[in-house]
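Summary: Need help interpreting a holo structure output

Steps to reproduce:
1. Submit the protein chain below together with the SMILES for zinc ion.
2. Request a joint structure prediction with the ligand placed.
3. Inspect the structure token block that comes back.

Expected: a single structure record containing both the chain and the bound molecule.
Actual: see attached output.

Input attached:
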Amino acid sequence: MRIIKHKLEKALYRPTPNHGGTFAKKRPDTIVIHYTATATARQAVDALSNLRVKASAHVVIDRDGTVTQLLPFDTVAWHAGESRHLERTRLNKYSIGIEIVNAGWLRKSGEIFLAQSGREYTREEVIYAVHRNSDVPYVYWHKYTEEQLRVTEELCALLIGAYPVKWIVGHEEIAPERKQDPGPAFPLDDLRRRLLGVDFDLKDDKGATPRVAVVTAGRLNIRGGPSIKAGRVARPLPRGQQVEILRHKGNWVEVETRIRGWVHKDYISPKKGET
Ligand SMILES: [Zn+2]
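--- attached output ---
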């Protein structure tokens, strides 16, 4: 594959009217990965070309790895919606949207697995996995094909070479309250590690790993280990709480909080062995 004048040389090209004009300078700097939640590329391309749907993406990657491009890579697509990454909101104006044909979460019914569309999938087409967003209840997910994963990685590498791309994120990470795509069947962390050389996407303004961070959630559970199954070690941290970053593992960060204040002398005692 090659990118010439913001288009993939050998991709099918099917322009969509749904777009927001040319990107500003120094953009796009982010790639957002999605699944289509459709059975076929055609369904996705048709929807993303429909004026009434008011959605689009730069490319759709079919089950066999065939790429359909809908917009040149210098043009803003409408794929992220309400979203947040680092200190920025509404990611469309910063990002390239890659849609991969995948049915998403599936419901088990006897020996088969049903997509939201009603289409059936077999055990071999499904993985059982917990989503990175801890409140997502679904555990059966449609697998991506080898061809899709290979083409997605190749395309991301090309885009990193052609544009100032610093981040690859899942839609589920920038809109966690509403989105589950690309879901746990997509090896997002592996892709980032290979292409961007990082397995940790919490960065400060200069792109460095921060040593101190601030809680942005309303109430953030703090646990004894890097898993939602690990018990809570304290009351939830409030928004704005400053934490020191000790280390990280996958999507989890071990932090320490230092609270300074006054307490009555009767309710504290010296640490054993010290005076
Ligand atoms: Zn999406």
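--- end attachment ---

Reviewer comment: Residues 17 and 49 are 6 Å apart (CA to CA). The chain has two domains: 3-200, 211-275.
Status: needs-info
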